[in-house]
Design goal:
The structure holds two protein chains of two kinds. Chain A is of the alpha/beta class. In chain A, the strands form seven sheets. In chain A, strands 1, 2, 5, 6, 7, 8 and 20 form a seven-stranded mixed sheet that branches. In chain A, strands 11-18-12-13-14 form a five-stranded parallel sheet. In chain A, strand 1, helix 1 and strand 2 form a beta-alpha-beta unit. By secondary structure, chain B is α+β, with helices and mostly antiparallel strands. Chain B has two domains: 43 residues, no CATH class; 62 residues, CPE0013-like (CPE0013-like fold, Roll), CATH 3.10.530. Chain B has a five-stranded mixed sheet, with no helix packed on it. A three-stranded antiparallel sheet of chain B has the order 1-2-3, covered by helices on one side. In chain B, strands 4-7 form a two-stranded antiparallel sheet. In chain B, strand 5 and strand 6 form a beta hairpin. Chain B is elongated and about 55 Å long. Classes of the chains: A alpha/beta, B alpha+beta. At the A-B interface, helix 3, helix 4 and helix 6 of A face strand 5, strand 6 and helix 2 of B. The complex binds flavin-adenine dinucleotide. Flavin-adenine dinucleotide binds next to helix 1, strand 9, helix 4, helix 5 and helix 7 of chain A.
Chain lengths: 419, 119
């Protein structure tokens, strides 16, 4: 049987993929979604707390409610969704890409796509990726795993919990564990300031009198079968443990909230260029990767703190993929964006200056800044400027650049942030 | 009464100062009116939206995510959790469907936030 042909195939049915499929459908492309889980919605299925959607929908929604709005639209448009379907292999074909997939209905089958959107989300850093000594007893979990156990499966993983890392998911889980009857002994953060959103510090820790220990980390786990306790230790300004400051904290659960990494394993065979700073593909403002016809969005592109921007990137990637598939392809003329000064990273990493219109740029500050100024320039000419009262690395910033301002023939565009 | 707060109405996180002067509540530091009403509320009667899960009868959807349709007093969250953890959902509900008419002595209903009919 020859493989079914689609204009656009979207891999991953989280908020990024859902938005991409809707945008591709709107643009007139035939589009399908491939999802390995039983239901669409991605990580939002387990994010039962509220705070999603303020930017996109102007109201505070829970994760499942946010996903529901897009899922309804996907269903309403009759977009084909393959669930519990695993991607076995991804390869180039003459017309674009060929995907080898597996599910219980069709066993192993193939799909052809003229354009592809990778919306595979991110994964969590694990204990092995942070520096913790000791055995590997049961009771050490990533925050997302705890979230899934409590909110999807209905298991409380422990009674006395220590949380390492003050990222948002860890803060959210501190509250969730507390509400479900566990004791959260403290949140330990190696940096001198919390990495989660202020809203979550207030509503997840302060509301429940959960202590937040800054410049402190977990250096050792104790216990053989089950976790019995952890050693916590203060650190100096270079994040090195301060000898003599060790303290033993008895606990049965250690929750790691130590960061997310874009998930792009499926793209490796294609040799897509990856930005070491974001962990996601290098893209232009269309979210086109280095591989013609392959687009990236959401947390696979770079880790977002707000799902609203995940959806926005999905819309861009989906529309761009549709345009590519429907034959509106012109070779790009890429100009790199040089991030200078206090910028942690910026996405996109380059601009296709053969196109007019607008380009949406996202960036994060490398450290907390007050009264900062961002200047976008090319060949010494200022294209855009923005002042910020305060900037924090956890909070991604978004600016829109009018591409008609970019002078022809420039070698690069400079994005410079000064504190 | 006097309190220093970080506004949580939006991700900007304005630093607010709120205090009572006689009958009046004074707020400083807010960039928008939502900040002022938040600070007033936090001083006099802090309230939160409670989000949690309810057990269901369905093995393929063992827990239904729910939330209070509006905010309830911060002090009543644990009582509400006790009440909600005794519930069992027997129908396949959709977002917005009412799970419980009144949460722990308030007039705020508890509503489903996920679509159990989806498969
Ligand atoms: C544990 C956790 C909690 C979070 N909490 C919040 C929060 O509270 N607020 C917030 O704004 N953001 C939160 N985030 C960030 C959140 O991930 C984004 O807001 C948003 O959900 C990302 O959307 P996405 O579509 O890029 O990825 P996801 O939502 O992760 O969706 C990716 C989808 O792709 C599927 N997939 C992956 N690989 C394959 C494959 N090979 N084949 C088929 N399907 C595949 C996955 O099953 C998943 O359904 C959280 C992230 C994590 C990991």
């Amino acid at each position: 049987m020859s493989p079914a042909k689609w204009d656009v195939v979207v891999i991953g049915a989280g908020p990024g993929g859902l938005a991409a499929s809707i945008a591709a459908d709107k643009a007139g492309a035939s589009v399908c979604l491939v999802e390995r889980e039983a239901r669409p919605g991605g990580i939002l299925k387990q994010c039962i707390h509220d705070g999603f959607g303020l930017v996109r929908f102007g109201r505070k929604l829970t994760g499942p409610e946010y996903a529901f709005l897009d899922i309804e639209e996907v269903k309403g448009r009759g977009i084909k969704l393959f669930t519990e379907t695993f991607l076995l292999d991804l390869d180039r074909s003459e017309e674009g890409f060929v995907l080898t997939l597996q599910n219980s209905e069709e066993a192993v089958f193939r799909l052809e796509a003229k354009a592809l959107v990778a919306a595979t989300g991110c994964r969590e850093r694990t204990a092995r990726q942070v520096f913790i000594h000791g055995q590997r007893p049961a009771g050490v979990y990533t925050a997302g795993t705890v979230q899934r156990l409590i909110n999807i499966s209905g298991y409380l993983p422990g009674k006395n919990c220590v949380i390492l890392g003050s990222g948002d998911i860890g803060l959210i889980m501190a509250r969730r564990l507390t509400l479900e009857g566990a004791k959260v002994l403290g949140v330990y953060e190696i940096k001198p300031e919390p990495s989660g959103l202020t809203r979550n510090i207030v509503q997840c820790l302060e509301d429940y009198n959960i202590p937040l220990h800054l410049s402190t980390t977990v250096t050792e786990v104790h216990g053989t079968e089950r976790l019995e306790g952890v050693t916590v230790c203060r650190v100096d300004e270079n994040m090195r443990p301060l000898p003599g400051s060790e303290e033993y904290v008895p606990c049965d659960t250690l929750v790691l909230s130590v960061g997310l990494i874009p998930e792009n394993d499926i793209l490796h065979p294609l040799g897509v260029e990856i930005d070491p700073r974001t962990g996601g593909p290098v893209v232009d403002q269309l979210l086109a990767t280095s591989e013609a016809g392959l687009f990236s969005c959401g947390n696979a592109l770079h880790v977002n703190d707000l799902v609203d921007y995940v959806s926005e990137s999905g819309e861009i990637a989906g529309a761009s993929a549709a345009r590519h598939a429907l034959g509106d392809y012109r070779p790009p003329r890429h100009v790199p964006i040089l991030a200078k000064g206090e910028i942690l990273y910026a996405v996109p990493q380059r601009l296709d200056v053969s196109l007019g219109g607008q380009g949406i740029l996202y960036f994060r500050a490398a450290r907390t800044l007050t009264d900062a100024a961002l200047v976008i320039s090319a060949g010494g000419r200022v294209l855009g400027e923005k002042k910020y009262k305060s900037l924090r690395p956890p909070e991604m910033e978004r600016i829109v650049l009018d591409l008609s301002l970019v002078p022809a023939g420039e070698e690069n565009i400079v994005l410079e942030l000064r504190g | 009464m006097e309190k220093l707060l970080v506004c949580i109405q939006c991700p900007q996180g304005c630093k607010l100062m709120v205090k009572t002067e006689g009958e009046e509540v004074l707020v400083a530091g807010n960039k928008c009116p939502r900040g002022a009403s938040y600070a007033r509320q936090e001083l006099l009667n802090p309230c939160r939206t409670l989000t949690t899960t309810v057990r269901t009868e369905f093995p393929d959807f063992p827990l239904l995510p729910v939330r209070t349709a509006g905010e309830i007093p911060l002090g009543s969250l644990f009582a509400a959790m006790g009440e909600i953890n005794r519930l069992l959902v027997r129908n396949r509900l959709r977002p917005g469907d009412v799970v419980l008419e009144r949460v722990s002595g308030t007039d705020v209903p508890l509503i489903a936030t996920a679509d159990m009919t989806l498969n």
